[in-house]
Design a protein that fits this description.
single chain, 5-stranded mixed beta sheet, PyrdxlP-dep_Trfase_major, pyridoxal phosphate binding, cystathionine gamma-lyase activity, binds pyridoxal-5'-phosphate, 394 residues, alpha/beta, pyridoxal phosphate, 12 strands, 14% strand, 7-stranded mixed beta sheet, 15 helices
Length: 394
């Protein structure tokens, strides 16, 4: 069996040598000639019905070969039969929700979640009744019309872990979606634990360079078909240039995640010992819910952490304004280190009470550790923390 690091380099490129190419070709066609109408009609029916490919792509909203390449690559990295790519992580989640609505009107969701996922679900915009539950209550709250269970692990931004196997068991025959954005397939493969849908905001680690917005759902072919039908109908497409960039990031995925994770382990220790820091949330420190899953469900603690400052909002704002090397910005999983304030930015759209109950307070900062040299990162963070402390005293 080909191992992960090798797959990451070669997946979706298997036919290139035969084609006489080294880099994947980018197909920008919006339409494709139909010279044989019978064959064209058959292709059209197949693609609208959710087939992964057809003899003729017909129209780029139905199929694009450059997008299909990166889908194949990601399916092999997640160990699923199929992958369906969208123009963003939110478009990917929306497609699963629209499909779920055809099976029932109720979804069970474990908080915390990425802020906009929480907002999309709480708003009822997709016509589903959302019930937020503790992971331990899923079996008791399941109803005849429950169409989907949604979890995010590690969760954004508190890094709580959720036991995927336990949730799958509690969900019974209800499909389970795992947002695995923070983990990447380098650290966990939820489908191997029974998850029906593995979701990624591919904007983050999978793309890895902060230059493409994309979302994917990895799942069995049977579940991918209705998702392609939704994509063809709603047009929530990943552009082929974005697909190319996403594919370009994959060969270095394992290298990037491993290096960023090693940096994160070192930074978490130093932050935990810093007098300005009240608490560090990092799976590797055992300070998050279900941290025991590091080493089993997750191969490592990952490259994301959050930390609470004694000085509250003012100290957090001061650190954001004082970092010089780190980028003070939302998003995560880029080669460079990003630091942001969840209560003020990414989780602004979450109900304020739910936000506080999830541990997202005014002094909380989230750090997405990059692949820079770790002492350079620490020096930058330490000077920002020290500057914030002195300005609080002054
Ligand atoms: C960013 C993110 C999303 C949303 O993805 P977009 O690509 O921004 O639409 C969903 N879930 C998690 C965990 C994220 O970090």
């Amino acid at each position: 069996m080909t191992r992960f690091e090798t797959l990451a380099v070669h997946a979706g490129r298997e036919d290139l040598t035969r084609l006489g190419l080294h880099a994947p070709p980018i197909d920008l066609s919006t339409t494709y000639p139909v010279t044989d109408l019978d064959a064209g009609t058959a292709s059209f029916d197949a693609l609208v019905g959710g087939a992964a490919s057809a003899a003729n792509p017909i129209y780029a909203r139905l199929h694009n070969p450059t997008v299909a390449r990166v889908e194949n690559a990601l399916a092999s990295l997640e160990g699923t039969e199929a992958c369906v790519a969208y123009g963003s992580g939110m478009a990917a989640l929306t497609a699963v929700l629209l499909d779920a609505r055809s099976r029932g009107g109720h979804v069970l969701v474990v908080r915390p979640l990425y802020g906009t996922s929480d907002h999309l679900l709480a708003s009822g915009l997709c016509g589903l009744e959302t019930e937020f539950v503790d992971a331990g209550d899923i079996a008791a709250r399941r109803r005849a019309d429950t169409a989907l269970v949604i979890i995010e692990t590690p969760a954004n931004p508190t890094l709580d872990l959720v036991d995927i196997r336990a949730v799958v068991e509690a969900a019974g025959d209800v499909p389970v979606l795992v947002d695995s954005t923070f983990a990447t397939p380098v650290l966990q493969q939820p489908a191997s634990l029974g998850a029906t849908y593995v979701m990624h905001s591919a904007t983050k680690f999978l793309g890895g360079h902060g230059d493409v917005i994309a979302g994917v759902i990895c799942c069995a072919e049977q579940h991918a078909q209705p998702l392609r039908t939704v994509r063809a109908a709603t047009g929530a497409l990943l552009h082929p240039l974005g697909a190319y960039l996403l594919h370009r990031g994959l060969p270095t995925l394992a290298l990037r995640v491993e290096r960023a994770q090693a940096n994160a382990v070192a930074l978490a220790d130093r932050l935990a010992a810093h007098p300005a820091v009240a608490r560090v949330f990092f799976p590797g420190l055992g300070t998050v819910r279900n941290a025991h899953l590091v080493g089993t469900q997750m191969r490592g603690p990952g490259a994301l952490m959050a930390f609470d400052l004694h000085g509250g909002y003012d100290a957090a704002a001061a650190v954001m304004s004082r970092v010089r090397l780190m980028t003070p910005a939302v998003s995560l999983g880029s080669v460079d280190t990003l630091i942001q304030h969840p209560a003020g930015l990414t989780h602004r759209v979450v109900d304020p009470q739910a936000r506080l109950a999830s541990g997202i307070g005014p002094g909380l900062l989230r750090l997405s550790v990059g692949i820079e040299q770790v002492d350079d990162l620490w020096n930058d963070l330490a000077q920002a923390l020290e500057g914030a402390r002195l300005s609080a005293v002054a």
